[in-house]
Design goal:
The chain is mainly alpha-helical. The chain contains three helices and two strands. The protein has a two-stranded antiparallel sheet with strand order 1-2. The termini are far apart.
Length: about 170
C-alpha cells in the first residue's frame, strides 16, 4: 500500500474510528499535543525570530555606519590628496615659468657672448693683419680700420667688412 492510499483510507475511516474508540481518540490527541506546536511555544518562537531580526538590523546599521565613516575618511584623504596635487601643479607651473625665464636669460647671454666673440675675432684679425703687413712689407701700421656696411633686415646677404690701413713707411 502506498502513502497516498494510506492517507486516503485514514481520511475516510478516521472520523468514525475517533467517535467509536475513545482510547484511540485520547491517544491521538496526546500525540498531537506532544508533536504540535502550542500557541505559547509558537509565540515564543515568533518573538525569538523578531528579536533576532532586530539584532541583525542593529548589526547591519552598525556596519553601515562604520562603512560610512570609512567612506568619509576616504573622501577626506582624497580631498587632501587633491589639495596636494593642486599644490604640486602650482609648483610645477612656477618652476616651468622660472625655466622659461632662465632660458630667455641664457639665450640673451649666449647672444651677448656671440657679439663679444665677434669683437674678439675682429681684434684678433686686426692684430694678425697688422703683423702680416709689418713683417711682409716692412711697414709700420698705425691704424687698422674695418668698415662695415649697414645690414638691411630684408636682405638675406650678410654684411661684408672692408678694411683699410693707414701705413707709415
Amino acid at each position: 500500500m502506498s502513502i497516498e492510499e494510506i492517507k486516503s483510507q485514514l481520511q475516510t475511516e478516521l472520523p468514525a474510528l475517533l467517535q467509536q474508540d475513545t482510547g484511540f481518540r485520547l491517544w491521538l490527541e496526546d500525540l498531537i499535543r506532544r508533536t504540535a506546536v502550542s500557541s505559547e511555544r509558537f509565540d515564543d518562537r515568533f518573538d525569538r525570530v523578531l528579536r533576532e531580526l532586530a539584532a541583525d538590523r542593529e548589526a547591519q546599521e552598525r556596519k553601515w555606519e562604520e562603512q560610512n565613516r570609512k567612506w568619509d575618511e576616504q573622501n577626506r584623504h582624497l580631498a587632501e590628496q587633491n589639495r596636494k596635487w593642486d599644490e604640486q601643479n602650482r609648483i610645477n607651473h612656477q618652476l616651468l615659468d622660472e625655466i622659461r625665464q632662465a632660458r630667455t636669460r641664457h639665450e640673451q647671454s649666449i647672444g651677448a657672448l656671440g657679439a663679444r666673440w665677434d669683437l674678439a675675432s675682429e681684434v684678433s684679425f686686426r692684430s694678425a693683419l697688422k703683423g702680416i703687413l709689418e713683417k711682409s712689407f716692412g711697414v709700420e701700421v698705425i691704424n687698422v680700420s674695418l668698415m662695415t656696411r649697414a645690414r638691411s633686415s630684408a636682405s638675406p646677404i650678410r654684411s661684408r667688412s672692408t678694411s683699410s690701413c693707414a701705413m707709415a713707411t
